[in-house]
C-alpha cells in the first residue's frame, strides 16, 4: 500500500530557532500533500495544502511566513517552522494523496512529528 | 464550509462485541468518506473509505455505510479485539471553489475494547 514517511518523529528545539520537517511519498508520486496540526486529544486541523511546483495554499489563520512549505518534487514536501515559540509545540502530520479522489485515490498520513519548543 | 460531527466521543465495549461510530456531514456535495484509526503517538491510518456512489462497503471485520439523503455515515467493527482500541476519525471530502478537494475531519472517537 501507499506509504508516507515523515521525519523526524520527534524534535526539541530552543525558542527562536527554526525546524524543518520532511514528508516523503515512498512508492507513489504526490502532486498534492497536506500538512495538519493536532493538539492533544483533538482532531486534525488542516494548516496548508502543498502543491508541487507552486505556492502552498494556507488555511485561514495560519501564518504563511511562519510555516514555510516547499514542495520541490513529486515525492517530497517540507514544512519549516520559523522562529519557533513554545506555543508552536504540537504534533504535526503530513499526508499525501496517491491519485485524484475522483479516480479512486486515497489520503495517506505520515507518522507525525512531535515538536517541543523550549 | 463543511461540518462533520462524530459520536460518541468515547466508546467502551467488551471484547467480541460490535462497535458503531456515527458521523454526519453538512455539505451535500461531499463525495468521499474515509475512516482513520490513530494509535497513540502515531499518524492516522486509513482503514476503510467509501464513495458517494456506494451505500455500503465491507472489509473483513470492518464495514462502512453511507446514507446520502440523511447525510450520515457509520463505521461498524464486529468481533472487536483489544488491538482495535484507538481513536477513530471520520472525514468528508469537500470540493473547493478553486478546484481540488479538502478533507474535513470529525472530532474523533476513543474506542476501548476491554477484556
Query: Structural class of the helix and strand makeup of chain A?
Result: mainly beta
Biggest β-sheet of chain A, characterized? 7 strands, mixed
Helix percentage range of chain B: under 10%
Label the overall shape of chain B: globular
Number of E strands of chain B: 11
List the helices and strands and how they pair.
The complex is a heterodimer of chains A (118) and B (115).
Chain A: E1 4-7, E2 10-13, E3 19-25, E4 32-38, E5 44-51, E6 57-58, E7 67-73, E8 76-81, E9 90-97, E10 107-109, E11 113-117
Parallel strand pairs in A: 2-11
Antiparallel strand pairs in A: 1-3, 3-8, 4-5, 4-9, 5-6, 7-8, 9-10, 9-11
Chain B: E1 4-7, E2 10-14, E3 19-25, E4 32-38, E5 45-51, E6 56-59, E7 62-67, E8 72-77, E9 86-95, E10 101-105, E11 109-114
Parallel strand pairs in B: 2-11
Antiparallel strand pairs in B: 1-3, 3-8, 4-5, 4-9, 6-7, 7-8, 9-10, 9-11
Quick structural gist:
The complex is a heterodimer of chains A (118) and B (115). Chain A has strands at 4-7, 10-13, 19-25, 32-38, 44-51, 57-58, 67-73, 76-81, 90-97, 107-109, 113-117.
Explain what this protein looks like in three dimensions.
The complex is a heterodimer of chains A (118) and B (115). Chain A is mainly beta and 118 residues long. Chain A has strands spanning 4-7, 10-13, 19-25, 32-38, 44-51, 57-58, 67-73, 76-81, 90-97, 107-109, 113-117. In chain A, the strands form two sheets. In chain A, strands 2, 4, 5, 6, 9, 10 and 11 form a seven-stranded mixed β-sheet that branches. A four-stranded antiparallel β-sheet of chain A has the order 1-3-8-7, with no helix packed on it. In chain A, β5 and β6 (57-58) form a beta hairpin. Chain A is globular. The model of chain A has no long low-confidence stretch (mean pLDDT 91). Chain B is mainly β. Chain B is built from no helices and eleven strands. Chain B has strands at residues 4-7, 10-14, 19-25, 32-38, 45-51, 56-59, 62-67, 72-77, 86-95, 101-105, 109-114. In chain B, β7 (62-67) and β8 form a beta hairpin. Chain B is globular and about 40 Å long. The model of chain B has no long low-confidence stretch (mean pLDDT 92).
Amino acid at each position: 500500500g501507499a506509504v508516507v514517511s515523515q521525519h523526524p518523529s520527534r524534535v526539541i528545539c530552543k525558542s527562536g530557532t527554526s525546524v524543518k520537517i520532511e514528508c516523503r511519498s515512498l512508492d507513489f508520486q504526490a502532486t498534492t500533500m497536506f500538512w495538519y496540526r493536532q493538539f492533544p486529544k483533538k482532531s486534525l486541523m488542516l494548516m496548508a495544502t502543498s502543491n508541487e511546483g507552486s505556492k502552498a495554499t494556507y488555511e485561514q489563520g495560519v501564518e504563511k511566513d511562519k510555516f514555510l512549505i516547499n514542495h520541490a518534487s513529486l515525492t517530497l514536501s517540507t514544512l519549516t517552522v520559523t522562529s519557533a515559540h513554545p506555543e508552536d509545540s504540537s504534533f504535526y502530520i503530513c499526508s499525501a494523496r496517491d491519485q485524484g479522489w475522483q479516480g479512486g485515490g486515497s489520503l495517506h498520513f505520515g507518522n507525525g512529528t512531535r515538536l517541543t519548543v523550549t | 464550509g463543511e461540518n462533520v460531527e462524530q459520536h460518541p466521543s468515547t466508546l467502551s465495549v467488551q471484547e467480541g462485541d460490535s462497535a458503531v461510530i456515527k458521523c454526519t456531514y453538512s455539505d451535500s456535495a461531499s463525495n468521499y468518506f474515509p475512516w482513520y484509526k490513530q494509535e497513540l503517538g502515531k499518524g492516522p491510518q486509513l482503514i476503510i473509505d467509501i464513495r458517494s456512489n456506494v451505500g455500503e462497503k465491507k472489509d473483513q471485520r470492518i464495514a462502512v455505510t453511507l446514507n446520502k439523503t440523511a447525510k450520515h455515515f457509520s463505521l461498524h467493527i464486529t468481533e472487536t479485539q483489544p488491538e482495535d482500541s484507538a481513536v477513530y476519525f471520520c472525514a468528508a471530502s469537500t470540493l473547493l471553489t478553486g478546484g481540488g478537494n479538502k478533507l474535513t475531519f470529525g472530532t474523533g472517537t476513543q474506542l476501548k475494547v476491554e477484556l
